[in-house]
Amino acid sequence: METVTIDALLAQVQKYNPKADLARIRRAYDLAASAHATQMRSTGDPYITHCLAVASILADLYLDEDSIVAGLLHDVPEDTAVPLETIQEQFGDEVAKRVDGVTKLSGLRLGMEQSQAESLRKMFMAMAEEIRVVLIKLADRLHNMRTLYARPPDKQRKIARETMEIYAPLANRLGIYTIRRELEDLSLKYLEPDKYKEIETLLADDKDDQQAYIAQAITILSERLAQEGIHPLDMRGRPKHIYSIYEKMVRKRRDFSQIYDIRAIRVIVENVRDCYVVLGIVHSLWAPLPGEFDDFIAKPKENLYQSLHTAVIGPAGKPLEVQIRTTEMHEIAEFGIAAHWRYKEPGAKRDPVFESKINWLRQLMDWRKDISDAQVFVESIKTEEFQDQVYVYTPKGDIIEMAAGATPIDFAYHVHTEVGNRCRGAKVNGKIVPLDYRLKVGDRVEILTAKKGGPSRAWLNPGLGLVRTSRAHERIRQWFKQQARVEAIADGRELLEKELHRLGFGQRNFDEIAKFFNYKSPDDFLEALGHEDISISTVSVRLFEAERAKTAPPEEAPPPVRPLPKVPETKFTVKGVNNLLQHLARCCNPLPGDDVVGFITRGRGITIHRRDCKNVLEISERERLIAVDWNQTDQAVYPVQVQVRAFDRAGLVHDISGIVAAEGINMASASALAGRKDHISIITATLEIASADQLTRVLNKIDRLPNVIEVHRVTSSGGDGEKRG
Asked: Which of 94, 83, 68 is nearest to 12 (CA)?
């Protein structure tokens, strides 16, 4: 492979673009050469040879001056210490934009599938903004494939497969045949080396005969065209494409001798009329082969390709392919979208025809912006956009392009997400069809919808074949994910409200609770609760701790309370109530961990109430309330009355007693009231509890016993305090 020099590149550019600023291109080369001075390629060549090769490939496409400069500099920001800002200062915004675009696409790391997929995703997203960024990336990949021989075998296969699955189809979609065919041939060389060598050998062995045969066919056709007054602008043998021969041998199950386009000529004429005249003359000279004619002029390919293809029984009874096209068609066939920039001056107006023809890129990217999984995104590109397409009609006559094999459900989601969600049936060409019907070219499709509702989970069953495109799959999954979120939020709300009520916290602001647990919104927090991503017991404990910290008085500034004569300590102590007679209020039975407040009585010291106690809320003399909190003690226990409602069964009291004993709790008293007509028993017990956490644990365990309807802590002031069930 011949190494490109800067002088050769400048001559190449000047040949098709005499107005190019060659000094500017040389400055770009000097910067790249300096930046990459110490770097070498795996081939052993200086790194700058790669930059020159990429720029030369872009020049082969006749790209504009900025693209050539960007090709020389495309690896500088990523692989050297020279920042993008330097390129912007020296070569302008357009060059910097293209270099930056290529840099963002160059994060492919072999062996890291998610990173690779994310980089490919960025490339496709960039396509809709600036096609030339992708052209530079394709040139970069082509030169890497040309030098792939220097990489280890495992890397060769991995890079070749990626090229065959992504880059070659991309070049085809953009219509750049010159790059596509070389990428395919080089990929095949490493993926199927034996087959590649076999076809290469067969072509080489037959080379002299092929050339003689092509020359004979061209002579015969030229003489006949001259007789009819047609003078082609060019007529020559068409280059052999090893991968296309291999692909036809596999797809059509034929051997080498049965592939008709091994011997092929291409005829370039002035206008479309002459294309069809030449076709008629070819068919009058040689008998056409059935099923081997394609009119891509009347029906161009999506990548802009136009040409007439026919296969005939040529001289000596051997098959011959003939391609007929105009000069403009030939440029588009060879250079695809890149042909749009040939000979264009900087700042030239956009071509509306060109813009409309690449609109598929923008449509392609529009819905895929919502796909968060990069691998799903790339797989959808590989399986849909690079496969055959079918063209169907809406009831209004609009043409919709769908992947081959698409169903009415796929069509419905292509039209609009809501149409897909509410799809209940379909008519094709006026007749009801099943939802697994495969759409065909020319079908007129009408979707039958319900007023409300959503998709069926059965649609996602691959065995039923109801959905074939990634867009429809993703939209259906999103719908069910949203439904699951709504249900989880409702479950989380119910769980939190019940727990707040059971533990005596009363009404709380869900926004504050969500922020306390570092969630962006109450719905996110409630969804996490509903999905059990965070346990309700964790929420209870942390809320208790937060409430304690919020209400505790500062250590250095205790509440101003006039000390009374010292009295003997009771079996519990309360911070903030030193040297005062203390006792727990029987109306609400507070426990360590409860949010409490002290009430200064007349002659009886301090009565400790729960802050939400009904009696405290009704006190008019608010000045007699003081802030208090619990001291942590290991010995103190407190009587708590709990009540259990359950369907009557033998052994229920025994099971409850077992749970209480296993928790190390003393049951001071217990009574049971057996049910009569409703067969419901009510069991009331007084437990000696050390803390609110201990109470929560025992209530949860009792609540899980068979036949238990609910269990709750009993307070005299507020009726049922905390319930389970």
From this structure: 68
